[in-house]
Every structure is written in C-alpha cells, then in structure tokens.
C-alpha cells in the first residue's frame, strides 16, 4: 500500500519540487525541459574566468543537490527521478551550459554509486569529446562496510555536501580546475560518514522500501534503504552515538576513519528526513561530547537536514579532518538556499519569483565532425553488422533475463532489447540509412546517444561510455588498427568509470578477453581468423564468469551461492560479437 504523500502526481513530483525551489529563491533558474537548476549569474562566473562546479544525482535527498546552487557552492545541479541517477543527456546539457570552449572548466562531483559513476562519466566523456574542459572528483566516504574484500565500493553520503562547500569556495577564490580536483580528492580521503535508521523511507507512489520492527533500528544503511551492517533493538541516544563512532573508527575495517587524541575535526549531524529537531539536538550534543572525551577537538559543527532520504527517521554522522584551508573554505560566506552555518546570519531576505529559461535539449543525432569516412561497400557491411547484432540481442531477451534473475533484477535482456529495437528504428533502410554508417566516428556517437536514451540505467550508461570513447579512435583511422584501438579504448573507459576489472564477473570479462586476444595476434594473419579468435576468447571468458565471485555491479550484493550461471552482461557481449563475425565471414567469402 502506497505511503501518504502530498504531491500533485508521482510522475511530476521532482519537476514540481524544483520549480517550487526556484520560485522561492530568485537567484536560481531552472533549465526548461530538464531537471537542472543553475545560478542566475552563471554567465558572469564564466566570464570572470572561474571554474564552475556541478553535482547531482537521484531526487529524494533534498535539499541536496539543488539546494546548494549559488554563490560559493554549486554552479549547477542535475536531478534524476527519485532515487535514480539522471541521464547523460541532462548532465551533458548542464555541462554545456556552465562550460564554454577556452573557459576555466568545470569540476563534477560524483557520488560513488554505479549509476552515478556511469551516467556522469558518460556525460563527461561526451563533453571532453566536444572540447570542453571537464574533470571530476568521486566521493565515497561511507564507513559502514566491514569487509576487506573488493566490492561495489563505498557509497557517497552526506559528506558530499561538505565537499561541495569546500570545492565551491576554492572555485570562488579563482583556483584552477586542477587544484580544485586535487584538493577535492584530498578532502574525500580525510572524511567518513555513517548512518542509523529507525524507520524506512518510501518512494512516492510506493510503500516502504524495507521493513523494521517497531523496536528495531539499523546501523550503516544507505541513502536508498540499502541494507546496513547491523540491526539491533532501539537504544538511548548516547549508546547509538557510541555505536556509530566506534564502528567508524574500528581499525579492523578497511573503511574506517583514523581518529586520535589531538585531532581537529568538523562534524555534521545530518537528518535523514524524519527526525525531530529535539532528537537532532540531543544527538548533536552527544556527538560533540563523546568526540571531546576522546581528546578530539570539534572546531566546526553542523546539525540539520543536509542530505535526506525522503522521510526516513534516521541520521548520519560525518567527520572531516581539518586543516587551515578546509576551515577557511567551510567558513566562507555563501548564498544558497540550504547551507547554514552554526551562527545564524542577519539581514538577509529572499524574494519569490518563478524563473525558467529555455535550453535546447540534446538529440541522439550528432553533427558531423568531418572525420574519416569509409567506402559505400564498407558502410553496407557496417550497416549489416549493426542490424544483425541488434536482431540477435532482441532474440536473446528471454535468455539474458533468465541469467539476470540469478544475479540481478531480471531485466538485463529486456533493457538491451529495448535499446536494440531503438537502434534498428533509428538505423533506417540499408539503401538510405538514417545514421551515418559511412563515418564510423559519428556513427559511434549517434549510437551512444540512442542507447543512453532508450536503454537507461547502468547498461545504457556502460554502452554509451563504450561507444563515446571508441568514437575518438575512429576519427582519423578506420583501418583494422583503428577498430582495434576503438575496442581497447571503449573497454578501458568502461573499466575506469564502471569500476569493474577482469575477474569481477561483469561484461568487462568478455570485452577484456577479446582485447587481449587481438593484441596477442600477429597483424599478418587473416582478419577473419583474428576476429574469430577474439570472439572465442570472449565466449570462454563469459562462460568462466559462472564460477566467479561478483565484485562489481548489482551481483556483488548477491550471495555467492546463488551465482551459478554466466553473467548476462558478459554473455550479451558475445551475442553481438558473434553477429559481427558472421557478417565479416560472409563479406570475405
């Protein structure tokens, strides 16, 4: 049964919320047809030669991130649906709006969730392809993980707000993109966060995301209700604070934060959405008291709703080691809706005004970059390869879904088939294609746009990244060496942003095996033979994933005993690889 929510409609709730925010705060604007909030004076910031700052993610964590747009913090925030990463097209639109050719560039702050890494990474790669100066800092300061084994990684939590505050201050001071990125990474290494919840949250239109007994609480859960590290009976506030700090500083875990007597820190007590002010003040007092009892000097303290999880009754504690630069950045005055210092400022007022400015939405079609083109015969062969590959993916929908039910949510085949159907639709007829099959670089970018829009989720982002990166290698070289380099670059980019490596039980296993096989072959051998060897290597690697322990992606959260079949993403790679080989064999006869 759906939980009560005061919204106009489930579908429009995020757009309505952003418009409400902008209506109240006159220094903000919303980009038309996008869930993007930007500073009203962004053109002046760019003209002044200052670095801009972008952050975003799924909605439901308000006031993050749109509440931190303004002087001294974010230049722009990109929102997705509730608990869902925004699509690369929206992120790219935001990057284009706050980054111009020959400007100081933009720093993107990415929270360490697979969807965010992939979708933001894809947009960054596309922006770089267009000549924009963009770099990123990924934050994963979660202290809840207890295992020393490789996993999907530490989650980005409320410490993101402190990182935005510090990077925003450095940008306002006129620091370079390189300096901000370097210092941002230093900040993330010196902070930790952990949360506790008394109740679940509920997505608009749905019921609670998980269940807790009336007398239970959960320690170390994620912002979306992901399982924590311990579930216990509810305890008094002082005992709860002790549990959190003890776990955060437990040296037997790889995610602990080092804390000793004499350290100087800032602490943020963050309301996850449903805690009363009375409870939050009690917790804040206990946090400062217990840290000081350890000999730790709390020189900056913040208490309030900074990054929530809808109406979850719970809190998180962030501890950040201080130095002079961090303190200066934290103390810098800002003009944003949601940041407040411990001492209230006077004499400020906010006018109410609705604001909306149009920005042309990006299309899956790309303008020609005047890159190297291929012959009509080669273009026909490329057309046939794409069409057959997509047909084979569509035919494999049920098989891939079956494999995915063992390790994920059972929709891998459907997701890939949805993208494949859209590619076939966009491709057009062989004698009059709609996509630029005569220009491989432009074609790869066009296909990236299609899969990002139609597939969505991690699969769309992964293939979008793969194709975007591959397109660069095909700009001036469409020989066999160029195609091989495109495969290598695409695979490398997927590994960099997706976080998976060979042996982690993902599509990377099949891709990397193919790349390795091609690199090991002599260029004098037959092209068909070389590709056949690469496909066989990919197939062997895909089948080998059945006996691997998952270390990345959704399957890494599944018990190893349940993982008895090959990874569906790796198998899907072999499906389209085999189709390409089949067309090449026919052509070479």
Helix proportion: 40-55%
Report the biggest beta sheet as strand number plus sense, adding barrel if it closes.
7 strands, mixed
Which oligomeric form is depicted? single chain
Please give the order of strands in the largest beta sheet: 6-5-3-4-2-1-13
Gross CATH architecture of the largest domain: Alpha Horseshoe
Q: What is the tally of helical segments?
A: 18
SSE class: alpha/beta
Number of strands: 15
What are the low-pLDDT stretches, counting only 5+ consecutive residues below 50?
344-353, 357-365
Number of domains: 3
- What does the radius of gyration come to? 25 Å
Q: CATH homologous superfamily of the largest domain, by name?
A: DhaL domain
CATH class of the largest domain: Mainly Alpha
Provide the β-strand percentage band. Answer: 5-15%
Shape: globular
Overall mean pLDDT stands at: 89
- CATH domain fold name of the largest domain: Serine Threonine Protein Phosphatase 5, Tetratricopeptide repeat
Distance between the termini: 61 Å
């Amino acid at each position: 049964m759906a939980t009560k929510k005061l919204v106009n409609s489930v579908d429009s709730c995020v757009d309505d919320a952003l418009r409400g925010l902008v209506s109240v705060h006159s220094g903000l604007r919303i980009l038309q047809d996008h869930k993007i909030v930007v500073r009203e004076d962004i053109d002046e910031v760019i003209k002044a030669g200052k670095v801009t700052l972008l952050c975003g993610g799924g909605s439901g964590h308000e006031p993050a991130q749109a509440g931190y747009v303004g002087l001294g913090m974010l230049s722009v925030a990109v929102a997705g649906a509730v608990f869902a990463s925004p699509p690369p097209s929206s992120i790219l639109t935001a990057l284009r709006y706050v980054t111009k050719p020959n400007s100081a560039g933009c720093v993107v702050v990415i929270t360490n969730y697979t969807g965010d890494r992939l979708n933001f990474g894809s947009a960054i790669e596309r922006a770089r392809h267009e000549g924009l100066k963009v770099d990123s800092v990924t934050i994963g300061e979660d202290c809840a993980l207890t295992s020393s084994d490789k996993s999907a990684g530490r989650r980005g939590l409320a410490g993101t707000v402190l990182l935005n505050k510090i990077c925003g201050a450095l940008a306002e001071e006129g620091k370079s993109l390189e300096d901000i990125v370097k210092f941002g990474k230093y900040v993330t290494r010196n902070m930790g966060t952990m949360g506790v919840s008394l109740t679940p949250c509920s997505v608009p239109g749905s019921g609670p995301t998980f269940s807790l007994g009336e007398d239970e609480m959960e320690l170390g859960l994620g912002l979306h209700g992901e399982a924590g590290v311990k579930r216990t009976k509810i305890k008094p506030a002082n005992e709860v604070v002790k549990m959190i700090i003890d776990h955060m500083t437990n040296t037997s875990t790889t995610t602990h934060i080092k804390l000793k007597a004499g350290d100087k820190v800032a602490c943020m007590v963050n309301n996850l959405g449903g805690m009363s002010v009375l409870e939050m003040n009690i917790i804040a007092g206990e946090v400062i008291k217990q840290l000081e009892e350890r000999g730790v000097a709390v020189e900056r303290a913040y208490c309030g709703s900074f990054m929530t999880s809808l109406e979850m009754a719970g809190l998180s504690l962030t501890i950040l080691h201080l130095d002079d630069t961090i303190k200066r950045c934290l103390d810098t005055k800002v003009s944003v809706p949601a940041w407040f210092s411990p001492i209230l400022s006077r004499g400020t007022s906010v006018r109410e005004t609705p604001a909306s400015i149009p920005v042309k939405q990006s299309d899956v079609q790309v303008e020609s970059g005047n890159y190297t083109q291929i012959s009509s015969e080669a273009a026909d062969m490329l057309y046939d390869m794409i069409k057959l590959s997509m047909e084979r993916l569509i035919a494999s929908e049920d098989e891939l879904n079956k494999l995915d039910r063992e390790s994920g949510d059972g929709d891998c085949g459907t997701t890939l088939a949805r993208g494949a159907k859209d590619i076939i639709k966009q491709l057009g007829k062989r004698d009059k294609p709609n996509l630029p099959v005569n220009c491989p670089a432009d074609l790869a970018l066009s296909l990236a746009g299609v899969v990002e829009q139609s597939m969505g989720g991690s699969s769309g982002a992964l293939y979008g990244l793969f194709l975007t990166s591959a397109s660069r290698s095909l700009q001036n070289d469409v020989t066999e060496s160029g195609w091989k380099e495109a495969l290598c670059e695409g695979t490398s980019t997927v590994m960099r942003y997706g976080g998976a490596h060979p042996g982690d039980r993902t599509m990377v296993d099949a891709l990397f095996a193919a790349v390795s096989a091609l690199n090991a072959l002599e260029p004098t051998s037959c092209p068909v033979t070389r590709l056949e060897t690469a496909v066989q290597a990919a197939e062997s690697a895909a089948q080998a994933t059945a006996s691997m322990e998952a270390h990345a992606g959704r399957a890494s959260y599944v018990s190893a005993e349940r993982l008895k079949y090959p990874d569906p993403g790796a198998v899907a790679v072999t499906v389209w690889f085999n189709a390409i080989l089949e067309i090449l064999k026919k052509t070479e006869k």
